Each structure stands twice: as structure tokens, then as C-alpha cells.
Amino acid sequence: MGSYPDTGKPVTVTTGQVMVTKYDYLSLSTATLLDRVDSSAWYGRRLLPAGTKLIPAVSSGQQIYCDQTMAYGAACLADSKSVGSFDLAYTVNVYGFLVNKDSIPPAPYRVADQSIRDGFKYELLYQGIDHGVVRIAYREYTDSIARPAFAQDLTYTLENGAPTHIKFRDVSMTIQRADNSVIDYIVDSGF
After folding, report:
1. How far is CA 90 from CA 49, 65, 67, 172, in A?
2. Among 2, 42, 13, residue whose Cα is nearest residue 178
3. 40-75, pLDDT tens digit by residue?
């Protein structure tokens, strides 16, 4: 949950960057296996193919990532050396506890935020200037946050040599200077 930028402060962004945003959605840092983890590498667990997404958990103060089912027999992996490869594996027992700690051959992974349903995100993106007309894209994301649910292209004619005040919905800002590479502006009120 948050917004950008702070109101009343000068901001500079380049073409393609977010000028103003407000968002409120759930996200989860998932680990994606870059290589498979063979089931023979440890006791009682099944094969985890490359591309498997694992959800975060903490066990005894250590960051681990587990099979999304978290059911009996699910695998949980840990990177005990913090080098970008899992080297320890656990199994979830019938009571939900981690058991059967084993060393495994290094299994590389990457961590990335994955958005979860039930949220929103609004943003204005700078798209450059054409003959004194500033182009700004509005994008509205809802639910899965994966792609815009609504989009609109906006244009505003700049005042010659003077700051230009523009407004879209509740967003109010003053453009100080703009060219095809950057825009300098101050947000008076956000979404």
C-alpha cells in the first residue's frame, strides 16, 4: 500500500517512467527454481521441476521456501549460505512441522514479487512531448494486477515558457519543464 511521489516536492522522471501512482494490493515474494530438484536428492519428497514457485516461510529464524501446498510430504528448501542456491531440504510432516533436514546439491533460484488478487494500482506514465503537447498514459490495474483493466492516453498543451498546471481525476500537478527525455514537475495532489 502506498503512493508516489510526495506532494509539493520537485520530481524528475524519464520517458516511460511512472509519474504518479497509488496502489494497495497484496504481494508475496516467491522463489522460482531455475533448475529441477531431483526427488532422489532427499528422503520422502517428490521431484520439483524447474519453474516451480515456492512460497516464503520462516523456520527457527531461517528464511525458507516451501511447496505451495504445505501439505504432508511437501518440500521446503533453504539457502543456508545466502548464495542464490538452495542447499538444504526439509519435509513437512503430518503435524505441519519440518523434518528430515538434508543437504542437497545446489539448486539455483530467483526471488521476485508476485501480486495476489484483491487490489488496485493507478499510475500516470510519462510518454514524451510532441510539438508542445505532453503525452501521459493512465493505467488502472485491478484484481490480479497483471495487466491494465483500463487504460487512457492523455495529452496536455504546455504554456509557452511558463509552468503548466494540469489535472486528471484527483491528480493535480504543475509541469515545470518537459522534453522527449525528461519531465520536471510538482504534484499538488495525488490519486
Report:
1. 17, 10, 11, 53
2. 13
3. 655 666 788 999 999 998 888 889 999 887 778 788
